[in-house]
Amino acid sequence: MSEITFHDLPLAEPLHRALGEHDYQTPSPIQAQAIPVILEGRDLLGSAQTGTGKTAAFALPILHRIHTQPRELESKEVRALVLVPTRELAVQVDRSFEKYGAYIDFRALVVYGGVGFETQVKTLKKGVDVLVATPGRLLDLHGQGCVDLSNVKVLVLDEADRMLDMGFLPDMRRIISLLPKERQTLFLSATLGHSVQSLAKSILNDPVTVSVNPPSSTAEKIEQQVLFVRSNDKAELLAHLLKQMEEEDEAQLMLVFSRTKHGAERLVKKLHKAGIKADAIHGDRTQGAREKALDKFRAGEIKVLVATDVAARGIDVKGITHVVNYDFPNQPESYVHRIGRTARAGEEGEAITFCSDEDMNVLWDVEKMIRQPINIIKDHPYHCTDLEDLHLGRREALKKIVKQERPRRRNRGGGPVRVRKAF
Ligand code: ADP
Ligand code: MG
Q1: Are 221 and 347 in contact (CB under 8 A)?
Q2: CB under 8 Å to 326, separation ≥6 — which residues?
Q3: Is the separation of the CB atoms in 341 and 221 below 8 Å?
Q4: What is the pTM of this model?
Q5: Which end of the chain is more exposed for a tag (fewer CB within 10 A), N or C?
Q6: Ligand 1 pocket, 287 CB below 6 A?
């Protein structure tokens, strides 16, 4: 997946040097996707199995910022706080910071229970750039006035799922209440179960989700297309596409995603008016009605099934040729989930996404997440040029930034690299 090298990532030269020494050449998928997002200052919800390199995914951008935005530390201050569930992990994460930051001037400290306070307290007094801590010990130190958390700029919750399993939720909440609201939060987890997601939702601010496990591997067989269209023209555009396919005798079994139940109903009515057989499944329809609709869809009696995300979750229909994001998914991650509904079992499929005014930011996040530009289709009567121009402009701007921020060999400090949020 990631044919890019670390040098394609705009990290400071001393980091590249350390990575080179440890023979890290290619970023792992979670690193390739998360590092640019973190450098931009966005909150992150990252999930990938154990052993996929999550530590470097958050440690490298944090070290990059410490290096490019150096400043004196206040007494007891902590710039970046990394919470981990166990001592072993605390030690390991601290070592990783030392390893990747071998050529960077910074102060890190690891604190965990079961050992004396003295040295920890002494170092804390000078202030630290990075504090790696287990929740209990951190709260003890805070209770004794040894650490000031009011200036933390980045919070990392590493192995958040394990922290929840170990009953750290109240401690985590207490710690978060001591942090400034204006901060960057990075949430890493091997799994994304219900409780993990609800915790993430409550503490992350407009996060970018980077998830390496989901069916992104099938994405290669899916032809992805985006169509820029005004909201009011979407139903006509869909009808137009369906008519076109019919004329060209193209096989079709189309799953259409609608954001709301009402939207799904309205769309089905509009399609009926245009003479297209369609049905909808969503939470307001009875189980019986949903099953009937699904059966008709499976049998090919209706070619178009409109569904909300929730209703579509469990369905497994073979031979879906097209997935249409009639309404753009709210989260980049659900884009991948939705389009994974087509091209099952090695077949080919098309994913068609409608993008209106309000969807421009999510489209951008999706392209960053899947690390590829989605093919723009403008050969239709409802094409919206200004949205296309806006999007192409963003793609160009990103290319320039990545080029500019490559390490400059002559300037060994790497030079200041601009990031969106001040660190
Ligand atoms: P996770 O947090 O997902 O369990 P870690 O960050 O602990 O994964 O990394 C697992 C191992 O992979 C570590 O030994 C680490 O040094 C190594 N590693 C991480 N990223 C890379 C990379 N890009 N290239 C080579 N080795 C890597
Ligand atoms: Mg880890």
Answers
A1: yes
A2: 234, 238, 256, 257, 258, 263, 267, 306, 354
A3: no
A4: 0.57
A5: N
A6: no
The C-alpha atoms of residue 366 and residue 360 are separated, in whole angstroms, by 10
53 lines ligand 1 (CB under 6 A): yes
Structure token digits, residue 176: 């978060």
Given pLDDT bands bounded at 50, 70 and 90, which one contains residue 2? very low
User: Could you please report the per-residue DSSP string of 349-392?
Assistant: EEEEEEE-GGGHHHHHHHHHHHTSPPEEP--STT--HHHHHHHH
Parallel/antiparallel/unpaired status of strands 349-355 and 254-257:
unpaired
* Ligand with the closest atom to the CA of 163: 2
Tokens read off for 343: 């091209």
Tokens 């530590």 — which residue?
55
CA angle centred on 410, ends 409 and 414, rounded to 5°: 65
Mean pLDDT of 182-199: 91
| Ligand 2 midpoint to CA 211 (Å) | 14
Confidence check: pLDDT of 92 > 90: no
Local confidence band at 401 (pLDDT 50, 70, 90 cut-offs): low
Averaged pLDDT for residues 349-375: 89
Q: Which amino acid is at 122?
A: K
95 phi/psi in degrees, rounded to 5: -60, -40
Ligand 1 atom closest to the CA of 50, numbered from 1:
4
